[in-house]
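Troubleshooting: if your tokenizer reports a length mismatch, compare your output against this known-good record of 247 residues.
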Amino acid sequence: MTTGSLPSHQAGRPALRLAARLLLAGQLLFILVTQFHTGGDANDHDSIFSAYAHSGDWKGVHALQFVAVAVLVAGLVVLSGALEISARRPVWAGRVGAALAVVSLGLYGVLQAVDGIGNKQVDHAWLTASDADKSARFASAEAMRWLEWGMSSYHAYAMGFALIALAAALAAVRTGAPRVVAALVAVTGLVYLVEGWVAGTGGFNAVHSVLIVASWLLSLTWMIWLVVITGRASGDRVVAEPAATTA
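Known-good structure output:
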């Protein structure tokens, strides 16, 4: 007996399409905006703090990064709902993933407040301080930086677990997407977890940068795949995968 039906399919397909487009738009916007982020060796505090203090678009870039992540998280939440519409039953892995995605957005908001506002202020205060105050101001700037490490680490953890949970939900509901899409979502989540660990233990080093690029490439792969799949003519069935087979 088939668990799917035409009304379910018609309700689920637009939501899946919206989720895919939000995800891709958010990821592309984030990558684009980040190209304007002031660069340098992020763990060379003397030089990078000076660069941050002189940056003219620092606050704007970080505000737009937050907007991009908000769009991406909206896509994850819509994806969770779309899977439930398609499955016609609660998909708890998807609900957990959506909740963790919202938590990650909250953490990212605090991260951007620390980085986009706090860092700018303490770095400028250090750069313009008198010789007598220079050492104390630099210590304050480093403390703010280390707080940023912690916020970045736990944001990455929350996003990583959100993606792994949503990957499990994708694997449990037939959406017309190959199983490899769910696998790529899960791998992206694992990369985020490693990224969180590296940020928390070594800061924004070269390994951290490589992990960020890896998460971007993986995300773009499965997001574009979802956009293509959900953009096809609505002839594919969307049905829940049976939890068990009875004799």
